[in-house]
Amino acid sequence: MDFSSHSIVWILLIGLVIGAIARFLMPGRDPGGCIITMLLGIAGAYVASYAGQKLGWYEPGQPAGFLGSIVGAMVLLLLYRLIAPRRD
Questions:
Q1: Residues whose CB is less than 8 angstroms from the CB of residue 24 and which lie 6 or more positions away in sequence, other chains included
Q2: What pLDDT, in 10s, does the model give residues 23-64?
């Protein structure tokens, strides 16, 4: 895959938006700032794409849509909350 600097910036911005929406829909205390939120959104898109391809919702190589990416990010956030020790 050949990424130009323009496409990398686009991926990061969309990841930030997806991560922010996922955090908004699942309020609570989570670590990290903008970078972690961005990575959460990007990873959520990959999780949704992978799961969607395995379930037959997407063709091989087809990425998840915007809503699917948000759901993927929410799943990762839920898993993090279940696994990570609570810090009060």
A1: none
A2: 889 887 776 778 888 888 889 888 888 888 899 888 888 888
Q: How deeply is 38 buried, as exposed, middle or buried, from its count of CB atoms within 10 A (0-12, 13-18, 19+)?
A: buried
Of 66, 44, 67, 48, nearest to 58 by C-alpha is 48
Q: Helix or strand or coil: residue 75? A: helix
How far is residue 47's CA from residue 74's CA, in Å, rounded to a whole number? 10
Smallest CA-to-CA distance from 13 within 46, 48, 37 is with 37
Domain extent listing, the chain? 5-83
